[in-house]
Structures are given as C-alpha cells and as structure tokens.
Design brief:
By secondary structure, this protein is mostly helical. It has helices at 6-21, 26-33, 38-46, 50-59, 66-79, 96-113, 128-141, 144-155, 159-168, 175-190.
Length: 191
C-alpha cells in the first residue's frame, strides 16, 4: 500500500491520464527533456517505480524525429483497429456481467459527478482518460471503499489486458507500454 496524500495521488493519475488521452506536443517533450518532470520521476522512483520511470525517461531522450515517433506510437498503440492495437476502452476487454457491472459503476459516478465526455475528442465514457478522471474525483470526495471498488471493478478488471496488448504492438519507443505498466503497478499498490 502506498502512503500518499490524496493530492499526490490525484496529481499522478492526472499526469498519467493526460498522457494517455492525446499525443505529446513538442513543447511537452522539450519540458520532459529539460528536466521539467525530474522531481516527479524522482518521487515515483522513491515509491519503487524506478524501472517504469527509467523506461519512460529513456523513451523521451533527445533524438531525431522524437515527436513524430511518439505520435506514430500513439496512433499505432491506441487508434488502430482492435486486433492491431491496444484500444483504450474498457468495453474492448470486458464482456457479460463484468462489463455490465463496470459500466453501471461508470455511469453512476459520471452522473454523480456530472462528468461529461469531451465533445472535441468525442471519447466514449469507457475511455481510459474518462475513467481516470472519475477516479480523481473519487479520491477527492469518495470513501476509501468506493475508490477501492472503482479501482478493482472498473480499472484493474481490464487495464492489465490493455498493457499486454500494448506490449505486443510494434512501436518505435517503449513510452506508452511503460506508462501503462506504471499505471497498472500504481493501481495494484494503491490498496
């Protein structure tokens, strides 16, 4: 179990969720390369995530066409047809009662927190970034039991499968598989 404040937990989930929702910009890449996130990586290292942060940092090292390679990786990893990529939607991995139970929880929390999908990106409610945004709100106002239920029923029920698929997609960098791996391990250590 991780000994973190709710603010620290929210920040980490917000950071991961933002990286899984859209391609990195040139400005973001420069910020990573110039040390703008070194304190976060050091903090995560202290928590025992050094293997994951090393892979993420290595993937972001200065190299020709990094922005294009990361954009291609994002597309190949998340935007292609489901057999070719690791599409980041809960409904692509669960079925039957597990899917129904997870979607009911998502719908209930979306209504409770009045979370709406981003019309600019037109993401369905079961996209990983939407689910992480619900978790962030639960951390702020939900009980420990509600957070644990959401993590177990909604997130850990499928994100490990997403990771397995992401690790099989041929990519130029390890950035996205390492990021998803960090998320899985972080979720598992939460409770």
């Amino acid at each position: 179990m991780l000994d973190l404040t709710n603010q620290e937990r929210q920040f980490i989930y917000q950071w991961i969720g933002s990286l899984l929702s859209r391609e990195l910009t040139e400005e973001q890449i420069v910020n990573y390369q110039s040390g703008g996130f070194d304190s976060l990586f050091e903090f995560l290292d202290e928590l025992g995530f050094q293997e994951k942060t090393t892979k993420i940092r290595t993937a972001l090292q200065l190299q020709d066409s990094l922005r294009l390679e990361l954009a291609a990786d994002f597309a190949h990893c998340f935007l292609l047809e489901g057999k070719l990529s690791a599409i980041p939607y809960l409904s692509a991995y669960l079925e039957g009662q597990a899917l129904d139970q997870a979607l009911e929880l998502v719908d209930n929390w979306m209504a409770h927190y009045q979370v709406s999908i981003n019309r600019d990106h037109n993401e369905p409610s079961d996209h990983i970034s939407i689910l992480i945004s619900i978790l962030i709100k639960l951390i702020e106002t939900g009980s420990h039991a509600e957070q644990q239920q959401f993590i177990n029923v909604v997130l850990l029920s499928w994100i490990p499968q997403l990771l397995k698929k992401a690790e099989k997609v041929p990519l130029k960098t390890e950035f996205y598989p390492a990021l998803i791996s960090l998320l899985v391990e972080f979720l598992e250590k939460e409770f």
